[in-house]
Amino acid sequence: xxxxxxxxxxxxxxxxxxxxxxxxxxxxxxxxxxxxxxxxxxxxxxxxxxxxxxxxxxxxxxxxxxxxxxxxxxxxxxxxxxxxxxxxxxxxxxxxxxxxxxxxxxxxxxxxxxxxxxxxxxxxxxxxxxxxxxxxxxxxxxxxxxxxxxxxxxxxxxxxxxxxxxxxxxxxxxxxxxxxxxxxxxxxxxxxxxxxxxxxxxxxxxxxxxxxxxxxxxxxxxxxxxxxxxxxxxxxxxxxxxxxxxxxxxxxxxxxxxxxxxxxxxxxxxxxxxxxxxxxxxxxxxxxxxxxxxxxxxxxxxxxxxxxxxxxxxxxxxxxxxxxxxxxxxxxxxxxxxxxxxxxxxxxxxxxxxxxxxxxxxxxxxxxxxxxxxxxxxxxxxxxxxxxxxxxxxxxxxxxxxxxxxxxxxxxxxxx
Length: 416
Ligand SMILES: Cc1cc2nc3c(=O)[nH]c(=O)nc-3n(C[C@H](O)[C@H](O)[C@H](O)COP(=O)(O)OP(=O)(O)OC[C@H]3O[C@@H](n4cnc5c(N)ncnc54)[C@H](O)[C@@H]3O)c2cc1C
Fold this sequence. Notes:
By secondary structure, this protein is of the alpha/beta class.
């Protein structure tokens, strides 16, 4: 069913009783050419691009909970491509360009809002590193704009711009194409489009082990619904990547941490930019419902508990109020966390694993929502062809043996 204004009108005339489910809920078949583990954005996008770009038809996505119930449905929805190194800039800008056409491509409104993304400088040191960063972006062909103190004040009137503020704002830089997209819609849009192309999406189906052929290659998986044969398997399980790698018999340089976020009660439009303050450790945007969406850095210790610690919550709130004192009377409505897959160089791992026919997409850590279209595209490419896409080439697992790391953590030092 094509979604359109006319379909909406027809639906209204029929009291909205004629809508069909956005995707089927099939029972798993005994065998597929390709099985993807993880029904978050990256797994669902990979399934869609396998069917769309590579015209493959025997594909399943297995999700142990519900679609988008992992980090895809828990993030603060920031999209941007302002990365420091050329390898990352190419990958993330490819993703942002895919986002720019995604609602049309999927026939599903992902509510992309390119409202602009502003990074604040609170010290001379910050100003220098933002200048270096913006220059690197120019060199990589991605637009960036350094902002004076006055320009930041004009763009974000809600900021405390007084010179004796606890964290005075000295300037900043912006990527105007950055912004937000609706996280659930990205998962649902890919799921619906993949289902329409014949992909079986199976929820409440946990992968519990791997079946291997005599040559050590993966030939199937054990699940809570029984054994499923598979020609190739792709892993896109974010914070649980090390757990699945352990079941498959290899180790990953990934540590899992809780990353938390929170929203305030809704208020009238007050903030029409995504504002990041690496110096204080908080970032804020206003959702379409009016809530202030607030995020910060990782919890300090590895964990699989999707709650987040009070100490980090407190420091993120304090940082937010230091730059936006006028938000101090707002009540927090909800707080939650997701388990993110952190790699030492803050860059993803894409491509083959030490186990033949098993491929991986992980290591996005605190910033993989913006990468969903590209990450899915890369995983689909390697699953379909057995070869890496050229944009994924620098992000191989073997970089932890060669030492050719891409240290994006050096650029921002903040999760978003
Ligand atoms: C609080 C927070 C804020 C964030 N903010 C941003 C942001 O603003 N911008 C940004 O770009 N990124 C952000 N991120 C990061 C981003 O959300 C993730 O990098 C991205 O969503 C990862 O997508 P994914 O599909 O790889 O993982 P997920 O969405 O986590 O999907 C993985 C799925 O695998 C499933 N799974 C796990 N184990 C198994 C198993 N054994 N069998 C079957 N299924 C299994 C899980 O249930 C889960 O649904 C944030 C993350 C958090 C937690």
